[in-house]
Design goal:
Blueprint lengths: L2 E3 L6 E3 L3 E2 L16 H13 L4 E3 L8 H10 L7 E6 L6 H15 L4 E6 L8 H13 L3 E7 L3 H9 L6 E7 L11 H8 L2 E5 L20 H4 L6 H21 L3 H9 L5 E3 L6 H8 L8 H12 L12 H8 L1
Parallel strand pairs: 3-4, 4-5, 5-6, 6-7, 7-8, 8-9, 9-10
Antiparallel strand pairs: 1-2
Helix pairs in contact: 1-2, 1-10, 3-4, 8-9, 8-11
The chain binds NADP nicotinamide-adenine-dinucleotide phosphate.
């Protein structure tokens, strides 16, 4: 495993972390098909292979993800750097503090290593949230402050709202099918030494190459996601062809090539989501080697021409659901 400094915090975190949205998530029977013992084995596998960065959120499974992580890390607290997130309805000063205390209880720890604002909320001034965050740091309940899904301007405003702390990270979607952050957020993060925590680094599984039109995951969120439309899977296949060719030549897995492309610079760490130990094992294999400049160029070229089909209207979501019922 390779490790990088999280922002300017001095803490070293693994460049491949563990995303845990899929652990604990049940959406009216349409959640992921996780089971708890596999989930715990997955977390243990991750730690055994050198992953120390585990990401969760109070919203995942309504706290269930945090509880399962708490169970899994009991007795191994020192081996992990725990990141969780406060949901956007809990961003007022009082609520952020209470939410952190609830997460601490569910995780069974004394302190959250990285506490992140999950999404900005335009109706609650960020100054209030950050005041709550600083209080949590002062009380020893949080070590580092992060944000998620923040634009450059939102990130600057959040930073300005802090008096003694610095924002160490911004967790955003970044993968070969979505490179929007390269326009302004990534250059800003490099300049300010804010770590980009890349979520959906495998484009929700598409970049593993295992999905095809008619063969997509069962969970509700991905079923209604336009990214999983037959047309988008066909368009993504152009990128997968290049990844497959490189993977074959280098003796790697397709997902390892996709992840290696992401973590080629120290500003970025990736948190592929996994609920099976075998997936973690494969994802860890994205470290310890480097794509050549020529391979990176080839991947850059094909992925920059990817333009996804867009959702025509939100009214089409129920019809998309019915189609897959
Ligand atoms: N901050 C935010 O707003 C936000 C938003 C989304 C996600 N996240 C975080 O980011 C994490 C990752 O994002 P994500 O789950 O959306 O997408 P992802 O990591 O791109 O894809 C995860 C899916 O890929 C499949 N997978 C993973 N490793 C694999 C492997 N080695 N071989 C084959 N399949 C593999 C699994 O599919 P199956 O489960 O179908 O087997 C898994 O559910 C989440 O767990 C969550 O912690 C944060």
């Amino acid at each position: 495993m390779e490790y990088v400094e999280l922002g300017k915090s001095g803490f070293k975190v693994s460049v491949i972390g563990l995303g845990t949205w899929q652990i604990g998530t049940r959406l009216w029977g349409w959640g992921t098909d996780y089971n708890e013992s596999d989930a715990i084995a997955t977390i243990h596998q991750a730690i055994d292979l050198g992953i120390n960065f585990i990401d969760t959120a109070e919203i995942y499974g309504g706290g269930r993800s945090e509880e399962i992580i708490g169970k899994a890390i009991a007795g191994r607290r020192d081996e992990v750097f725990l990141a969780t997130k406060v949901w956007l309805t809990n961003l007022s000063y009082d609520k952020v503090i209470k939410a952190a205390e609830r997460s601490i209880r569910r995780l069974g720890v004394d302190v959250i290593d990285l506490y992140q604002v999950h999404w900005p909320n335009p109706f609650i001034p960020i100054e209030q949230t950050m005041r709550g965050m600083e209080k949590l740091v002062k009380e020893g309940k949080v070590r580092c402050i992060g944000v998620s899904n923040f634009s450059v301007n939102q990130l600057k405003r959040a930073q300005e709202a802090l008096s003694s702390e610095e924002i160490v990270s911004n967790q955003v979607e970044y993968n070969l099918l979505n490179r929007k952050i390269e326009r302004d957020l990534l250059p800003y993060a490099r300049q300010e030494k804010v770590t980009i925590i890349a979520y959906s680094p495998l484009a929700k599984g598409i970049l593993t190459g295992k999905y095809a039109p008619g063969n997509i995951p069962r969970d509700l969120l991905r079923k209604v996601d336009i990214l999983f439309s037959s047309e988008n899977l066909r368009r993504a296949n152009k990128i997968l062809e290049v990844l497959r060719e490189i993977a074959e030549r280098r003796g790697k897995d397709v997902s390892q090539v996709a992840l290696n492309w992401l973590i080629k610079e120290p500003t970025i760490l990736a948190i592929p989501g996994a609920k099976r130990p075998q997936h973690v094992k494969v994802n860890v294999g994205a470290t310890g080697w480097r794509l050549t400049d020529e391979e990176v160029k080839k991947i850059d070229e094909v992925s920059s021409s990817f333009k996804p089909e867009r959702l025509k209207s939100y009214a089409s979501i129920p019809f998309r659901l019915l189609r897959f019922w």
